[in-house]
Amino acid sequence: MFIEVKNCNNIDSGGIELTPNQLNIKYATNGTGKSTVAKAISFSIGDRSDGGKRLKDLTPFKGYGASPLEPTVTGTDTFSNLRVFDEGYINDFVFQPTELIKGSFDIFIRGADYEAGMQEIAVLTSETKNLLTSDPEISQLISDLGELLLAFGKQVKSGLHASSNIAKAFKGGNRVSSIPTGLEKYTNLIQCEQNYKWIKWQQEGKDFLDISSDCPYCTHDVADTRELILKVTDVYDAKSVESLNKAIVTFSKLDKYFSDETRKKIAEFITNIDGYSDAEAAYIVEVRRQIEQLAADLGKATNLGFSSLKNVDGIIEEVKKHKIDLSLYVHLNSSSSAEKIDIVNRGVDCLLEKAGKLQGGIAKQKILIEKLVKKNSTGINDFLRNAGYHYSVKIIEIGETYQLRLIHNTVDSEIENVKSHLSYGERNAFSLVLFMYDCLKSGADLVVLDDPISSFDKNKKYAIVDALFRKDNSFKDKTVLLLTHDFEPVVDMMLHHPDRFSKPTVAFLENKGGVLTEVPIARSDIKTFIDIAIDNAQLPIPEINRLVYLRRYYEITSNKRFSFDILSSLFHKRNNPSRIGQNGFIDLTEDEVVEGVTHIQRFIPTFDYAAILALLNDDQQMKALYFASENNYEKLHLYRVLFDDKPSEIESDVIRKFINEAFHIENNYIYQLNPSQFQLVPQYVIDECDVYVDGI
């Protein structure tokens, strides 16, 4: 399929071919528009799905003039689930505070098989759960027990926690139900539902009595009752009264669940005007322990399922333990309690009838989870080991979920704040591999990788390529667009290890004057730079262009035969061939010249030093040759020769550095594309050179 891009940043028109269910590698020099292609595809699909207008962000500057240009992308209609690896993904999804990647449980564990297993177990336990949930009073009982436990506060070695609601409410006695002498006239206010609010209002208003003897509310003189008014705030505290109200309400809710004797004792406790004794506090704490235990037993029974039974060898014995013996709860042994506990125990009995099937389902689910944990953690750890990173990952069970955690190989503990411990390269490598697992789980129908591995060294590059595209649980046979200015992955997959990787579709992208085109790259196009130099030195092209390649051949071989010195002297426009000596350049001897020229003539029989030197010194002929050349690589070398004896015209340090380095040797890769067939020199460099050559 062809994806056409128009009026997006530096791309006026053009596009790329995309082969479904294959890795599509687009190799290009920097400045071609790789990132623009990635964004154009991403924005096009995103705008179609959510109605956005992000594609307009790619409008070129010239598109804002009198004749506005509209960015367009066609050919992406078949894709709906696009995933793009970029800096935004790294920032938003990986290296979370508690796990390496957001949603690691969904990515690595939860799937169709996992959900089917959980559903099978849920069906077996559903009758029990339905019995327990069909009676709303059981849920309310559990809730009320929990509420009362909160009122007790934290456990202490003896007695009640001083800051608990119960201690605050009853330590000084219940003076709401038993109003102290002298305050009887306030009975209706003290015992109303909103009493604590009235007490707070009364406390806040007493300061106004210091201003005058008038009531701050009705202005009647209260000098005779001032002492009585102040007694209210001396006896009552708004927070304590509020705590008392809540405690009494909660105790009242549970009243029917207490045994007769306990109900009587609690009634005495909450109505005692003098506060509680240590013995009474100990009694209440004993009640608390039974409430806590019953609440725990009820909670376990209602949550019977995979999570509570997965680590148990004998399911039948474990399920039996969830039956509740009410006779052990002397404080809660009432007819109402017995009614609810009977429902719980009947639910447990129902589950016991299915214990055999339940045990089989749980065992099957455990095996599946262990398999998924091993499979996914092994895949990531193999990559880390192959790339030389001293880390490993573990998928750790956290309650009913799982999280991916990072471990350093020198310590047996999880790394916290992972992002601050990893280098830039480590973060990118981790992110890229985790991104792959995320894409596989989400079922992405198109994955775009925008120059993700160029910054890594050779070993790490191969480890990443191996992890992403070779294994079964990888991007292998998925529709992936890899945009890169790094040629090594192409060499590894097409030349060195074609047996290990599914055959990718590879093309070279070129942007000339805003027109984006691509040239397919075949395995036969990948050659050593020695082969390229020899082949091009014998092409039917101008002799000076052939000498450019031949000079490169001599530069990279050890057997130079003085030929390199001769060609180097020629390109630097020296009248006589020379070589570097201890004190500068020294002329070659006649024999050395003969030896060097003879070897050159094996490739170019018509080679004549003086004739070529005359051509090089003729700026107009060189200018004509420069503009007649269709190959950017050759034009770059002709530019360098033209300006060898002239002041540097180009002001850009970046372009000047590019020209100087390219003039010598491009040995970043042993294997390369032939520069006579692929425009490996960026067009923006040649455009700059054209300006200065045209001015000669």
From TrEMBL:
Domain Protein CR006 P-loop: 373-488
Gene3D superfamilies cross-referenced by the UniProt entry: P-loop containing nucleotide triphosphate hydrolases (3.40.50.300)
Domain of life where this protein originates: Bacteria
Pfam assignment, any one: AAA_13
SUPFAM superfamilies for this protein: P-loop containing nucleoside triphosphate hydrolases
Name under which the protein is recorded: AAA domain-containing protein
Annotated organism of origin: Pseudomonas prosekii
